[in-house]
Amino acid sequence: MPTPRRRLASTCVGTVTAGLLATGAALAAPDEEAPKGSDIAMGAYLDYGPSGVARIPYLSNWLGGKEIRVGHTYLPGDRWAGIEGNVGFLADWAAWRQEDDDRMFVLNVPMQERNEERVSDSQVARLIRAGARGEHDPHFKRLAERLVGLGVPDTVIVLGWEMNGTTYTHRCGPDPENWKRYWKRAVAAMRSVPGQKFTFDFAPNRGTDAIGWTKCYPGDDVVDIVGMDSYDQGPGTDFDDQISQPYGLQQHVDFAKAHGKEISYPEWGLFRRGDNPEYVRRMLKWIEQHKPLYHTITDYCPHGVWQCKQNPQSSKVFKEALTPQKPGPVVPTPVVPTPVIPTPVIPTPVVPTPVVPTPQVPTPQVPTPQIPTPQVPTPQVPTPQAPSVPPVVPPVLPPVDVPAEPSVEPSVEAPVSPSPEVPVVKPSPAVPSPATPGPVGPSPAAPSPAAPSPSVPAATPEPAEPTTPKPPVNNTQWCVPLNFGEWLSKLVGNQAVCVKLDWRKGWLWPF
Known about the structure:
Low-confidence stretches: 3-32, 386-466, 505-511
Number of helices: 12
Strand order of the largest sheet: 1-2-3-4-5-6-8-9
Radius of gyration: 75 Å
Shape: rod-shaped
CATH superfamily of the domain at 33-322: Glycosidases
């Protein structure tokens, strides 16, 4: 269990100077800005048993709802039974851890019984050698089985903390080499338990103390985290000294980085210098800068800031730094209208698209064959003409020498020659007969009608030659036939103009 007493280690100026030259540590400039809250796993030691578990929600409420992710307690080191985990409060911490997967359970485990009874160095050396021989392995195996059985196989084990000091029986100084062997055997015993997933944290005091803590480092194979307990006390007069001193904060960070390990601060808080808000501010900034896996402040007097009311200024700094920042009121950003600058319109030159004439492919005209309809010629049957009634013959007159008039014959158009392939049907000449003609049919000699050519006209019957009546001899009537042409003659018939001359009364024949 941690004690409120921390001893100042006497360190001469020459040793400090030599340590600075050896480590090359640089002084960190103080940061005046207030530290910001972070998502680094944070916790506090509030009490070892059920009351420590019960106080966690109240601490969270005091910090404005800050999530307390780390639960931290210690096993009693008075007897081996306590070191083996035969204590009832472990079940309370296991139940708290199982409520949230994001939580972390940190357990400080002593390496010797009668751990705070001021055992002499010679007796400590003897106990260390016994542990190096494996005599204490069963105790650590039983502890591992207890933790796995409680459902916390991933517990962070801070084994043999502050081993570089003079307070605890499990200190390293009386026999560093065997102490390292002893550490290895304890870790091997706990890792041999099925189902375990423990993380082992090597956490010395800041500074040289009784022995430089690097001399007690057991090896990378059995250490997962390099931690450091750092209270506001010597060696060093201020926080800058705490950083730069041999085996101080800077060397701690550099050592862990060189060995590929994460860092932690299982214990830190106020101590020798009372209410020191500057220390709290600088320590929180250091944690924010170097991002340890976790950190837990020891919160009881004189170290604390919540349960201990004698440190009000440090308490205020701690609370302001870790209280989650609440968003302020949303102030609307004034909208400044952006002047609209008209964009000059640059006409795009129109490039005419060349017109490519489409070739006209004439559609071939397929002539439709004209199949002539065969024309069957109707045979032309001449209409029988009634015989002309002979004119009344006047009395016979003595013959008069009348010069013969030239006979005027009507012009008859020549018939169109028929196509040589189509026979021409010639009508029979009209034969006048005094008798009443019967029905006249086509000539028996007419050939069978054949398909004439479409352009062949029908045969035209030849007209009958006109007959001019002749006056009787020695008649006093002189008749001259009138020729009206073929068309009119057909309508009015053959006509003549007759003049009666009475030559017996003294008229002489004009010729």
